[in-house]
Amino acid sequence: MSTPSSEKTKMHIDPTERAWMRAAIVVLVIFAVSVTIAGFMLGIQVPTEEQRVNPQTIQDAPPWSEPGVREIVPGEKYDVYIVSKRFFYEPSTVEVPVGAEVTFYVTSTDVQHGFKIQDTNVNFMAVPGEVSKLTTTFNEAGTYDYICTEYCGLGHAAMFGSVLVTQ
Q1: Would you list the domain boundaries of the chain?
Q2: C-alpha 122: how far from its chain's center?
Q3: What CATH architecture applies to the domain 48-166?
Q4: Fewest 10 Å CB contacts: which of 61, 113, 152, 162?
């Protein structure tokens, strides 16, 4: 015995469950819009792995044998090489002019460290065997402290440095 086509079987969803499904979809849309705004409009970047290195011999090869600031285009573009070790950064202070595009290359010789420059969007991990890279522009003169954000041992709290941005 067949049923008439007007009596189609409908799937019943509880009204509360339907409301939660709609709420979940709204939250996902808000999240997607937030990520898009952060990524494109606010200039947030994902750090990239620039290259792989040997953490035991890295300080014997340039540019890691003399970490610090390299002027690429005078007054406009700089590369900064920083080596993180227990419990300090080398160099502990770097100086760049205001408005310059600065690319940070950071690696570790021993354990995983964090690298965050206060009051900027520079924040990434320094992993042994990898060089992490991130570019930023300092639009205001001043001192920007960088700190280790990954617990690396008893001296972790003393692991910091500074970026001096000058006129």
Answers
A1: 14-44, 48-166
A2: 5
A3: Sandwich (2.60)
A4: 61
Place of tokens 């409301």: 19
Summarize pLDDT for 125-158 with one digit per residue, the tens.
Answer: 999 999 999 999 999 999 999 999 999 999 999 9
For range 61-74, the mean pLDDT: 93
Please say whether the beta carbons of 129 and 121 come within 8 A. Answer: no
